[in-house]
Amino acid sequence: MEEHNTDKELAFEYVKSGPMPAVSRNDGHRYGKEYFEAPPMKLALWAYLAYAVITLRGHVVDFLRKIGVVKSGRENVDRNDPFKMTREFERFFTRNIYMLIRDCWERPIASVAGPYVDVVDRESDDGNWTYKFPGTKKRCLNLGSYNYLGFAENSGPCAEAVKDTIRKYGVGNCSSRAKYGNLDMLSKLEKMVAHFVGKQDAVVFGMGFATNSTNMRSLVTKGSLLISDELNHTSLIVGAKLTGAKIEVFKHNDIEDLERKLKNAIIEGQPRTHRPWKKILIVVEGIYSMEGSIVKLPEIIALKKKYKAYLYLDEAHSIGAIGPTGRGVVEYWGCDPNDVDIMMGTFTKSFGACGGYIAANHDIINHIRKESHSAIYGIPMVPPVAQQAISTFHVLLGKDGTQDGQRRITALAENTKYFRQRVRELGFAIYGHDHSPVVPIFLYFPGKLAAFSRMLLERKIATVVVGFPATPLLLCRARICLSADHTREMLDEALLAFNELGDLLGLKYGKK
């Protein structure tokens, strides 16, 4: 990546040219709409009151614990922790709020994470500090896994190819790629990735999180500016902090705020010296996994070109999940892959595997291979996992001689359209884009969040609920992830339960 050599005169030319015009999209049916319903003031006040009551209860229970009236599980507290004071609220929240509803998370499963999943039953007699397992399990409709295209399977051509790979290669590499872990199938997978996303080259890694967190430092360093969407994934945040670059945050998917940040960066330059930034890197996601929103890629590309910045696109949740042939948001918006400098994605969602990739031009990929700690020192993707990704690509590209790949892509799109429309019709407040298979349903209250999760499990429906601190205080939600393997009957079963619980718990906050 070459240095950003814009000087102040050019910067002021940018400013005088005015804001970027919106990129028009006339085909509303194709590009859909994005929804976000902020909680009305009355609802927000009641939610704040609920948290206040829970907090007050926590202080009372802490007092009763102190005098020995209430007994609970033991906290793991390091008495020599230098951050003891700053962690006090974290511990208070854990023991007095999180523990009340801990059973809604970390539920063990005992099957393939397909359209149905076996959830292991567990019981607690000490307020969720510890669990006992009676040895039973429930067969539940799975609305929580990222199995977008249904490739999380233990049978079929992909699974058989993985079995053959284990017989040939075993299950581990036992070396980094710089030594003797550079299998021929990894090079094959990298070529397939580059071809699929439309870039010159690609490099793959054994862990999706580490693909972001350990590689961004290879792209920008001190003297560069990294401009990040405020709702970017933790892996991007960690990676950004490790770069040493200056970090600016812009409002979620807000093109005007992004342009303001770019203008100010170019006009003011680096702190103290006011020299031009070496590089300016814009970092966004394709589909935001907590919000279900889709990045406004055409507008961001236009800004990137205007201000001569670079663009890093994380397609962890969008590759395979959207676009006419599953090639992600670049294909969805009809953009040129060459306009996105770095395309990152993972194999943990649509591909039913694990690990991640970075695709770019030859120079960038060669630089990452030489500079990335993960590429040099890390154990690469193991053979069975690499084969799962390769086999999935074969299906998506039709190289298996069938139309199964396109069938899955179409099924996911149809399921997404149907489910989102029906949830809105039932009266729920939802977040995200019409075409996003991630469907957040706002619950607002922590008590309702727990009740919704538990009562769905009783009805043999497994879903994910998310609350503070993973979301803003008032925006706790149920996050539904749709799959190509969900049938219309499965979705109707879930909608029937949602409708029942929506009435019972008073969850229908959507605008009429």
Can you walk through the features of this model?
With about 500 residues, the protein is of the alpha/beta class. It contains 17 helices and 15 strands. The protein has helices at about 10-15, 30, 40-65, 90-95, 155-170, 185-195, 210-215, 235-245, 255-270, 295-305, 330-335, 360-370, 375, 385-395, 405-425, 445-460, 490-505, and strands at about 35, 115-120, 135-140, 200-205, 225-230, 245-250, 280-285, 310-315, 340-345, 355-360, 430-435, 440, 460, 465, 475-480. A seven-stranded mixed sheet has the order 4-10-9-8-7-5-6, sandwiched between helices. Helix 8 (about 235-245) links the parallel strand 5 (about 225-230) and strand 6. Helix 15 (about 405-425) packs parallel to helix 17. The radius of gyration is 24 Å and the shape is globular. Residues about 1-30 have low confidence and may be disordered.
Task: Fill in the keyword field for this structure.
globular; 15 strands; 40% helix; single chain; 3-stranded mixed beta sheet; 7-stranded mixed beta sheet; alpha/beta; 512 residues
Report the β-strand fraction as a percent range: 5-15%
Tell me about the largest β-sheet. Answer: 7 strands, mixed
Helix content: 25-40%
End-to-end CA span: 50 Å
Number of strands: 15
Number of helices: 17
* Major sheet strand order: 4-10-9-8-7-5-6
Q: What global shape is seen?
A: globular
Rg measurement, Å:
24 Å
Q: pLDDT below 50 for ≥5 consecutive residues: which ranges? A: 2-29
Kindly state the mean pLDDT as a whole number? 90
| Class from secondary-structure proportions | alpha/beta
